[in-house]
TrEMBL record, chains A, B:
UniProt keyword annotations, A-Z: Aminoacyl-tRNA synthetase, ATP-binding, Cytoplasm, Ligase, Nucleotide-binding, Protein biosynthesis
Main location: cytoplasm
GO molecular function terms attached to this record: aminoacyl-tRNA deacylase activity; ATP binding; proline-tRNA ligase activity
Compartments, record wording: Cytoplasm
Statement: the UniProt record of this protein carries the keyword rRNA-binding: no
Domain Aminoacyl-transfer RNA synthetases class-II family profile span(s) in chain numbering: 31-485
Gene name of the encoded protein: proS
Catalytic activity: tRNA(Pro) + L-proline + ATP = L-prolyl-tRNA(Pro) + AMP + diphosphate
Top-level taxon of origin: Bacteria
Assigned EC number: 6.1.1.15
NCBIfam families, alphabetized: PRK09194.1 (NF006625), proS_fam_II (TIGR00409)
GO CC field: cytosol
Keyword Transferase: no
Official protein name in the record: Proline--tRNA ligase
Record organism: Propionibacterium freudenreichii subsp. shermanii (strain ATCC 9614 / DSM 4902 / CIP 103027 / NCIMB 8099 / CIRM-BIA1)
């Protein structure tokens, strides 16, 4: 340790948001170079390499073949797939000395598609699974938590190529199983949740989320086993209601109702119902947004949902990808006079109930709960007027469904497996079935058994490797410092030599050499420092086991400490090596 | 092999300039993505990883500590060191979403200096040697030869930090020894040559050049052991000559002498010497260039050298770094009327011999051979006139020495170790003593024994790791394909199963499994292909040993082939595994 390139810090670094980030910096594992860009010092790199090797072993075991593609890439393939535009400011772009547009790869679907196209031409060549462990680049708007969300980071990305859907299902399941083995070995708690594929396109998609209070991703789960990313939760759709006997809708005056609450209060005061009082859930709230397509086209979008719900911006963002959402400003209302601020309603079927088809031409999507036969109070597309008794499917329809309302603790799971609870996590892995999107745009076809050209179907699978280092640290650290699982710890044992006698350092060195010869990764703290400093540092650095060689040596004993439990016990110096080997066996 | 992601090509790829590049592409080791940017396929990546591990082992053995710095770097440190400007168009620059200037690291002196400054503060912390094996970026004007000169490439770069010059010498020698071990293990022929540190600054500097006819670097060596990069060769400086009795110089008319040859002819015709005829080497040629400093400042530079020599543009380029050289155009002559085209001479001591101090104010450097007492015929700074009998040190001096004349086969080595021969090579490693340049500009100081702040002295050391893969291929391949040394080969043995009998593939598989169990890296060619195709592919892929399991199996024999010598011999199938193990032992 006197030679190791490390310095421990007593004070927390500025702007370190979460415990693992603070400890990784304080313990000398990583250092910040620029926002979201970090250097790996010797201790940190050892953990990173160990995590890489776990991922590599399991990818090899499931039949993946390792390759290494460049990080600096030409624009053309990403232009063809449209991601050059879709990635927006998240992509690092540059121009080379000859004026060619290039990018730093955020993920490599296009390049792998072209690589397989370059080499393969027949169904006999498939399936194939290729992977790389490689440095990726994303110009995140808000890099955070050190290596948990960086702008330069290490990722394992893999891609499967199959000739048909059954093949893709098999490749997907192979990955799912391998990921379970990998994350089990990495040792943090995780859940597999249904996910939305986002900008990647595609269909079946699951995320591996590490449970973490500090996580950026919210997910839901039920006692019955349902789990999904909040973006991917679906609302159970109620059965339609018979509306044969429903009374006709009528327009009512509703001045000064800027909110759902004031609307409900007014309805109860002026238009009370006999059976029960008006509630927020009886109103149909219509919220207007501006969508901006990748080509810059702007168009309004109205979402109709029960008045006791809000639109979840993350769920909405996923639903409109690759377009993005912007607020609908007062100026926009001027350009669309049919959209009456505070009184927006659905376009009514047949003749408009009031005035003309006021909001016609504007895309209107409905929450899945608004099924045919449900009755609502909603805006009349006229200032200071609402409609009550408006029946879905009789009086109005929509351009489609938008399942973008906020998800709440206690909401029913879509598979009837019980009420949902909300939790937070960090996305550690993502597997998805891309299908033929990239193969079609980049023309990856092979000859099938009948000599016919067919488009290949693909899967894309990622693991945040550097992020995993951060997550392991985050999920295992305590108030004293890091606390590594044995398999990824930079050293399995830290030998702490305390006291001034030369024989102490000699004995410690001898034990270290014996352990090293037995294949154990040992760090010997041979520094000239006080026992207090050494113990504090050992706890901060977080090796699973430590062995204190100190005052007890005179009585022939050394102390064995377990970092996780804090337990200590004396063992005889002769048996120290065997004891350590036994303890390590149990840890693995 | 039926599952391996590889396809061999019968035809040479377009624009593959050298044999190794052709074979690496044809054998499916690498694929081009963009100019100077390549993907590593499974076979190529295995070689790259093996080379990386050799480098890592030797760097660890000499006490280096591995770290990993980002490739995407902020501008500021490179601005302070002035390399943001000095690198010119060779640097990939980009701007992030917040408008910050960034670069892709071509080498990391600045970042390592700052890292050590961040952690260390005392002489007790030193020496320290840090290294990384990392992807580097240089926007080469002419990327060539596949992975031999790429724009994205893998490099091992290391940096030593010492408190004094003796320490730096020791760190430098440690690297030199480690490099010798590394290059010996990599198995290509190389020479260690004196080098110029170029843009890196610093003093002692050596290059490890792999011998290669296709190499871009010219170097010289003598039978007596001298070796230097052409940019670093120095001219042996002759002793000064007593000029007491030298006759005075005189101006002569020399119309129409556009070249040295015409000048010599005219001198011999009109001004013949008694002792011997005029020769080109008796004339002092003065060549003018325009230098452009990093800040854009332009200034003429005149180089005086014997008329039988030419200025070597590469040697000149190194001599003027970080300025660059541009031609001196006719317009420039107009702006500097003292520089008379075709008749430029040195500024004469004391009063000018002719007219005024015509070219005064222009920097004038002399070849080291122009020592005091040598006598020359040279331009008179006046149109159509030369001066003869002009004595260096008596009639003219210079602003300094410029050792930039071309180096020729047969020139004497500067250490008197015999005549020089010229050869070509590829730079595989470079070690140099940076000294305090970066530590000074980035303020890396530590407290010395007396509690005084001293500037740290540094060394910088690089190995082209991906380039080494190309060079090993280049130096070992033959007309049939690649031919890997055992230590870096992707597989040690290729088992070729030929013929249709199921028992052949069974026997081949059994032998492959036994070898695999013995820790041998085996590739089994189990494809349905003709023996001819398989043999050709085995030679192209270049594993050191192959084992043919085919027709002979009926007689209980298999054939053992050595890729390098082409030798073949039959061994009994029972002894095949042991025979292979014996052969591999001999190869290692």
């Amino acid at each position: 340790m006197s030679k190791l390139f490390v310095r421990t810090l007593r004070d927390d670094p500025a702007a370190a948001e979460i415990p693992s980030h603070r400890f990784l910096v304080r313990a000398g594992y990583i250092r910040r170079v620029a926002p979201g860009i970090y250097s790996w010092l010797p201790l940190g790199l050892k953990v990173l390499q160990r995590v890489e090797n776990i991922v590599r072993e399991e990818m090899d075991a499931m039949g993946g073949q390792e390759v290494l593609l460049p990080a600096l890439l030409p624009r053309e393939p990403y232009e063809i797939s449209n991601r050059w535009a879709e990635y927006g400011p998240n992509l690092f772009r540059l121009v080379d000395r000859k004026g060619a547009d290039m990018l730093l790869g955020p993920t490599h679907e296009e390049m792998f598609t072209l690589l397989v196209k370059d080499l393969y031409s027949s169904y006999k060549d498939l399936p194939v699974i290729l992977y790389q462990i490689q440095t990726k680049y994303r110009d995140e708007a808000r890099p955070r938590a050190g290596i948990l969300r960086g702008r330069e980071f290490v990722m394992k990305d893999s891609y499967s190529f199959d000739v048909d859907d059954e093949g893709l299902d098999a490749s997907y399941l192979k990955h799912r199983d391998a990921y379970i083995r990998i994350f089990d070995r990495l040792g943090f708690e995780y859940v597999i949740v249904k996910a939305n594929a986002g900008a990647m396109g595609g269909s079946a998609s699951e995320e591996f989320l590490a449970l973490s209070e500090n996580g950026e991703d919210t997910f839901v789960r039920s006692a019955g086993g349902y789990a999904a990313n909040v973006e991917a939760v679906t609302v159970p759709v109620p059965d339609p209601i018979d509306f044969t006997d429903a009374p006709p809708a009528r327009v009512v005056d509703t001045p000064d109702v800027p909110t759902i609450d004031t609307l409900v209060a007014l309805l109860n005061e002026r238009y009370p119902r006999e059976d029960r009082a008006w509630q927020a859930g009886d109103t149909l709230k219509n919220v207007v947004f501006m969508t901006v397509a990748p080509d810059g086209t702007r168009a309004p979008l109205v979402i109709g949902l029960p008045g006791d719900r809000d639109v979840d911006p993350d769920r909405l963002a996923v639903a409109v990808e690759p377009s993005v959402i912007e607020p609908f400003e007062d100026e926009d209302f001027k350009r669309y006079p049919g959209l009456v601020k505070g009184y927006i309603g659905p376009v009514l079927d047949g003749a408009a109930l009031l005035g003309e088809k006021a909001s016609s031409g504007v895309r209107y999507l409905l929450d899945p709960r608004v099924v045919a036969g449900t009755t609502w109070a909603t805006g009349a597309n006229v200032d200071r007027k609402h409609v009550i008794g408006l029946v879905a499917g009789r009086d109005f329809t929509s351009d489609g469904v938008a399942d973008v309302a906020d998800v709440r603790e206690g909401d029913p799971a879509p598979d009837n497996s019980g009420p949902l609870t909300l939790a937070r996590g960090v996305e550690m892995g993502h597997i998805f079935q891309l299908g033929r999107k990239y193969a079609e745009s980049l023309d990856l076809k092979v000859l099938d058994k009948n000599g016919k050209l067919v488009t290949v179907t693909m899967g894309s699978y990622g693991i945040g490797v550097s992020r995993a280092v951060g997550m392991i640290a985050e999920s295992t650290c305590d108030d004293k410092g890091l606390c590594w699982p044995a398999e990824v710890a930079p050293f399995q044992v830290q030998i702490v030599a305390t006291g001034k006698g030369g024989e102490i350092l000699e004995a410690a060195t001898r034990i270290a050499e014996q352990l090293d010869a037995a294949g154990v990764r040992v760090l010997l703290d041979d520094r000239k420092a006080s026992p207090g400093v050494k113990f504090t540092d050992a706890e901060l650095l977080g090796m699973p086991t430590s062995l204190v060689v100190g005052r007890g040596l005179a009585d022939g004993v050394v102390e064995l400490r377990d970092r996780k439990t804090g337990s200590k016990r004396e063992v005889s110096v002769e048996e120290a090596v065997d004891e350590v080997l036994t303890v390590l066996d149990q840890l693995n």
